[in-house]
């Protein structure tokens, strides 16, 4: 007698009702916005394009797992219960619907500032997207090679990477209604889209998601592996926006409370060292003068914070490696600061790197690997012509106000998106999900169908998300970066 599947022991009606509610909600929004004469508004075509595709792709995605578990074609695992797999899909669908719907509702707001802010955000996001497209970095869906962006306002910057449409869905802070500096989150977020949907024409050995071809396979010896995606997004953002983003990240990272400032969160580079990634990238762009000025500014801020921490008893001066004396003798050489390092060691390393401009090999190699994935091309810079002069005045007083003019350069005279930047609402092939599966190569012969166990597709683990296709269903479930986190759960930056 065959063993019962976990699906048989679940209350399937619960999932059926939830999926049915989502189907109804998506269709209701489509019905609301389909009639152009009644509901014409900015970005309507792209919004409908997303809704149609979300509905069709989502149905096939859900059906694949529901049928696969019911017919025991997908091997079950206690590490990823069937209930959790189905819940992830429902979350993916519901969060995408929320974001797309929100972007439509916000474009109905009559306030002119709202509309101007969204138009500027769209234009800036498209600039960052064009940087990638000009370098042939982004792979489209199988039947459509056109890309666009869609932004919306929320509490913090975030990105939703989606597999079913060539759209960068970017949340920008609602503060951009008044503070245009916060637009600078956009290039970093576009970097996440490139990370997951980068085109790799010349490398048939790996699938097209950049994380699977970024470096060698993850290793327990590589302490910074969990920073990989954020490092790539940082590097991409720095290449798009230039020095102004490096300055902005100094402000952001300096604002962390003490423990977070020196602690690894298993996702982002440690705040005390992260701005040094930006100055390193500027050096590689040939902007040595600006990089040195920004690095010296960060060094002064680190020393200020060190002194304050010592005064509060949070650090001991004899162990924190003060760079105000002789840094070469104050602390021993540190080959690489790992996520488990003590705060004193992290600060000491940040001080040495800020003073010397030399990053430890592990950090540097990760940055170099990301840079190597971005082909050369015309330089992109959102900084403004007088950025260096303003930075010099700022360096005279590191705690002084930021150069507001420099932060406004990139929002002036922006061309708004035209109809050419919209996607066709009815451009939805019937076999969208199947074509996507074939394009990604999840179950091609090269993906290792031979690893199936007793005719079943094995689940795989989280580490498989960073591997070439290997025939595991966890890779399909997470759909090259299709996050199940909600739009309010962002940890950016």
What share of residues are in beta strands?
Answer: under 5%
| Gross morphology | globular
Averaged pLDDT: 82
Structural class category: mainly alpha
| Structural domain count | 2
Biggest sheet, strands in spatial order? 1-3-2
Q: Could you describe the largest sheet, including whether it forms a barrel?
A: 3 strands, mixed
Helix fraction, binned, reads 40-55%
Question: How many individual β-strands?
Answer: 3
Query: N- to C-terminal separation?
Result: 53 Å
Query: Uncertain spans, ≥5 residues at pLDDT below 50?
Result: 200-221, 322-335, 448-452, 487-493
What is Rg? Answer: 24 Å
Series of H and E elements:
HHHHHEEEHHHHHHHHHHHHH
* Helix count, DSSP H or I runs of 4 or more residues: 18
Describe the structure.
The protein is mainly alpha-helical. The chain has helices at 12-34, 36-39, 44-70, 82-106, 112-134, 185-197, 228-241, 243-254, 258-261, 274-284, 288-311, 327-330, 343-356, 361-372, 387-396, 404-408, 432-440, 473-478; strands at residues 148-154, 158-160, 167-173. It has a three-stranded mixed β-sheet, sandwiched between helices. Helix 1 runs parallel beside helix 4 (82-106), helix 6 (185-197) packs across helix 7 (228-241) and helix 11 (288-311) runs antiparallel to helix 13 (343-356). It is globular, with a radius of gyration of 24 Å. 44% of the residues are buried.
């Amino acid at each position: 007698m065959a063993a019962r599947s976990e699906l048989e022991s679940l209350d399937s009606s619960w999932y059926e009702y939830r999926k049915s509610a989502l189907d109804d909600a998506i269709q209701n929004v489509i019905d609301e916005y389909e009639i152009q004469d009644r509901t014409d508004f900015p970005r309507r075509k792209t919004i409908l394009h997303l809704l149609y595709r979300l509905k069709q792709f989502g149905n096939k995605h859900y059906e694949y797992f529901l049928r696969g578990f019911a017919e025991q074609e997908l091997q079950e695992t206690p590490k990823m219960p069937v209930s959790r797999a189905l819940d992830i899909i429902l979350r993916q669908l519901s969060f995408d619907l929320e974001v797309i719907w929100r972007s439509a509702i916000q474009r109905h707001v009559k306030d002119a500032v709202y509309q101007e802010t969204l138009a500027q955000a769209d234009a800036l996001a498209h600039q960052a997207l064009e940087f990638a497209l000009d370098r042939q970095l982004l792979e489209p869906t199988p039947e459509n090679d056109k890309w666009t962006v869609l932004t919306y306002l929320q509490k913090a910057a975030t990105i939703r990477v989606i597999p079913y449409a060539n759209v960068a869905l970017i949340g920008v802070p609602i503060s951009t209604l008044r503070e245009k500096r916060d637009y600078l989150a956009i290039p970093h977020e576009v970097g996440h889209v490139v990370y997951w949907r980068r085109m790799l024409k010349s490398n048939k050995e790996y699938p097209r998601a950049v994380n699977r071809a970024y470096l060698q396979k993850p290793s327990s010896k590589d302490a910074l592996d969990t920073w990989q995606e954020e490092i790539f997004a940082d590097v991409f953002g720095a290449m798009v926006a230039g020095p102004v983003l490096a300055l902005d990240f100094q402000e952001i990272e300096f604002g962390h409370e003490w423990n977070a400032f020196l602690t690894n969160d298993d996702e982002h580079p440690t705040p005390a060292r992260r701005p040094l990634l930006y100055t390193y990238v500027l050096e590689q762009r040939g902007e040595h003068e600006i990089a040195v000025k920004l690095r010296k500014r960060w060094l002064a801020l680190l020393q200020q914070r060190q002194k304050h921490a010592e005064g509060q008893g949070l650090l001991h001066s004899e162990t924190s490696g003060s760079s105000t004396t002789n840094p070469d003798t104050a602390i021993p050489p540190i080959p690489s600061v790992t996520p488990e390092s003590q705060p004193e060691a992290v600060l000491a390393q940040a001080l040495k790197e800020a003073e010397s401009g030399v990053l430890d090999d592990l950090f540097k190699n990760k940055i170099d690997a990301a840079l190597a994935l971005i082909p050369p091309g015309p330089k992109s810079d959102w900084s403004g012509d007088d950025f260096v002069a303003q930075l010099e005045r700022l360096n005279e007083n590191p705690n002084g106000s930021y150069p507001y003019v420099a932060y406004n350069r990139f929002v002036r005279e922006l061309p708004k998106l035209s109809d050419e930047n919209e996607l066709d609402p009815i451009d939805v092939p019937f076999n969208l999900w199947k074509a996507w599966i074939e394009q990604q190569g999840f179950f091609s012969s090269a993906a290792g169908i031979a690893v199936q166990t007793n005719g079943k597709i094995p689940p795989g683990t989280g580490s498989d998300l960073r591997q070439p296709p290997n025939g595991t269903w966890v890779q399909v479930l997470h759909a090259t970066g299709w996050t199940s986190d909600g739009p309010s759960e962002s940890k950016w930056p």
